[in-house]
Amino acid sequence: MNSLSTILIVVGLFLVGGIISFVKQKMPKGLIVLLSLAAAMCLVAGVMRLEVWN
User: Transmembrane stretches, by residue range (predicted)?
Assistant: First the structure.
């Protein structure tokens, strides 16, 4: 696992924590959806950069 994939996965997990926090605070749904998309893209990019796919 290289450093970029690790960073992407960590940032994705951080954003998932933000989603949970924003839902508890009853923030606007548009903001939660935007944060969800960003978290999903970070996690998918981090997993796709792993070397296990080669």
Answer: 6-23, 30-48
